[in-house]
Write a structure and sequence with these properties.
By secondary structure, the protein is α+β, with helices and mostly antiparallel strands. It has 8 helices and 8 strands. The protein has one domain: Dimeric alpha+beta barrel (Alpha-Beta Plaits), CATH 3.30.70. The protein is 34% helix and 29% strand. α1 packs across α6.
């Protein structure tokens, strides 16, 4: 979907919504991933983590971590960026990408909240700051046959979706949500609070767009720094 159209739809749904833009990356297993020794794997992983630390220290990478659930992406990245191409170029230097262990699937992403804080500010003042990792249920809202060919939900359905999501944020059950630009199969994401994944699944299934068949949630669990993901 074109970004200008998405903005128009959002404005019609919630005129007062504050919007922030990021680059969202899915780290997937590389299709040419080959068998390597344990020592090689450990060395690549060490370089992978060091690369992400450098990106974070440079103020580019705001949140990152592996997905605990099997199937689909191995991990997630959220960048502060000017373009998808810029974020892809940064990720191309990751040793896990260079050595064909992972490849990135990157999209421009619109969020309801500010990512990376207060963690980025605290790491800037104290590079040795010890942050806490949490497990957050995470839903990818996949397209269905109803959204094929660019079909869009009614204005009433869109308003109900954003009102429902905002209510969950206010209740402290949902930490962030937003749509992707240009994805052929993914509409957007929901990052929930640290609640049981089955509770998050029920909340996702109660979303008006899901109930009406416009999207299908696929659930995962994300390991991520607590202070990097927005909180109310």
């Amino acid at each position: 979907m074109k970004l200008w159209l998405l903005l128009t739809l959002l404005a019609a749904a919630l005129p007062a919504m504050e919007v922030h833009y990021y680059c969202w990356g899915f780290l997937n297993a590389h299709p040419e991933r080959a068998g390597i020794s344990k020592e090689q794997a450990e060395e690549i992983q060490k370089g992978h983590l060091a690369h992400m630390e450098r990106m974070g220290a440079a103020g580019r990478l705001l949140a990152a971590g592996p997905l605990a659930t099997s199937g689909g992406a191995r991990g997630l990245l959220v960048y502060r960026c000017e373009s998808v191409a810029q974020a892809e170029e940064w990720t191309s230097h990751d040793p896990a990408v260079v050595n064909k262990r992972l490849r990135v699937e990157m999209y421009r992403w619109m969020s309801n909240a500010v990512w990376g804080e207060p963690l980025a500010s605290r790491l800037k003042s104290d590079p040795n700051y010890k942050y806490r990792m949490v497990q957050l249920p995470f839903a990818i809202l996949m397209r269905t046959g109803k959204t094929a060919g660019g079909a869009m939900p009614s204005e009433e359905a869109r308003k109900a979706h954003f009102a429902y999501s905002t209510k969950l944020v206010e209740e402290g059950k949902l930490r962030s949500f937003g749509p992707f630009e240009g994805s052929p199969d993914k509409l957007g994401v929901f990052v929930y609070a640290a609640i049981p994944v089955e509770e998050a699944r029920k909340l996702a299934e109660e979303d008006p767009l899901v109930r009406d068949g416009w999207g299908k949630p696929v659930m995962h669990v994300w390991f991520v720094a607590d202070e990097a993901v927005p909180k109310r």
